[in-house]
Structures are given as structure tokens and as C-alpha cells.
UniProtKB/TrEMBL annotation:
Organism: Cotesia glomerata (Lepidopteran parasitic wasp)
Domain annotation CID: ranges: 11-136
Protein name: CID domain-containing protein
A Pfam family that the UniProt record links to this protein: CID
Length: 143
């Protein structure tokens, strides 16, 4: 499969579906990460499509979208800072959405791991603090 094929919203949706089907395997996250960073000039469309697909996903699939966002936030700061910023901006609304979906322990535990990781790395402190408010019973510590 050609990694950096022509970008389209449909192609991104197809790759997001594949991410879910592959249960966010390391390889599937890495492939989609590279595709998204390569097409960073389409940041608005990427964020809109990612969020749209996350909102439609089953609760236990939503974590896969957060795993991808986590990878982008942690690893794309130098190569695609505008993409990282766009993800950070949309995540507060996503947190409210996830709070309403969190009857799924897998999702809840995964979100907690991501937020603890951010806290330990000293990144996204504003989002970690916001998440503590949104998910008022999560125990997140770190920096």
C-alpha cells in the first residue's frame, strides 16, 4: 500500500476505519500518523474528520482515536506544530464527549493512562487540568 497517497477526506476516513479494525496496533497508528503528518497542510480537514469519526464510534473504539491524537501530540511538535495545536484545541470538546461515553472502563482507563503520561512528561498541562475538571473522578498526578 502506498503510504503517502493523494489526500482526501474519504481516504482519511478509510484509514481511520482501518485503525479501528486493527485495534490501534502499533503499525496502524504509525502508518496513520505518518500519513497525517505528511498531509499537515490539510489540518482543518484532518481534525474535522478525526473528530467526526470519533463522535460516531462505539465507546470502546473511541480510545483508538485518542491513541492516535496522543502520538501526534507527543511526536509531531517539530514537524507539524500547527497540527499539534489544532488537536490540542479540539480536545476539550472531545473530553466532554468522552465523559458521556465513559461507561466503558476500557475507554476510561485508557484516557487516564494518556493523561497521566502527559502529566509525567510535563506536556499539555492545560489539557490535563481541564480533563481533571471534566472527569472529576480521575486521579492524575505528575509534574
Amino acid at each position: 500500500m502506498k503510504l503517502f497517497c493523494h489526500f482526501s477526506e474519504d481516504k482519511l476516513r478509510e484509514k481511520l476505519v482501518s485503525l479501528v479494525q486493527m485495534r490501534a496496533s502499533t503499525a496502524s497508528v504509525e502508518e496513520l500518523y505518518k500519513f497525517i503528518v505528511h498531509h499537515k497542510q490539510k489540518t482543518k480537514l484532518i481534525i474535522d474528520t478525526w473528530a467526526s469519526e470519533l463522535y460516531k464510534a462505539k465507546p470502546y473504539h473511541k480510545l483508538y482515536f485518542m491513541v492516535l491524537a496522543n502520538k501526534i501530540i507527543q511526536e509531531a511538535e517539530k514537524s507539524a506544530p500547527e497540527l499539534v495545536l489544532a488537536y490540542k484545541k479540539c480536545l476539550l470538546m472531545v473530553f466532554f464527549h468522552l465523559k458521556n461515553s465513559r461507561e466503558d472502563d476500557y475507554l476510561r482507563n485508557g484516557i487516564t493512562v494518556i493523561l497521566k503520561n502527559w502529566s509525567e512528561l510535563g506536556i499539555c498541562s492545560d489539557l490535563v487540568e481541564a480533563a481533571k475538571v471534566v472527569f472529576n473522578d480521575l486521579h492524575i498526578s505528575g509534574h
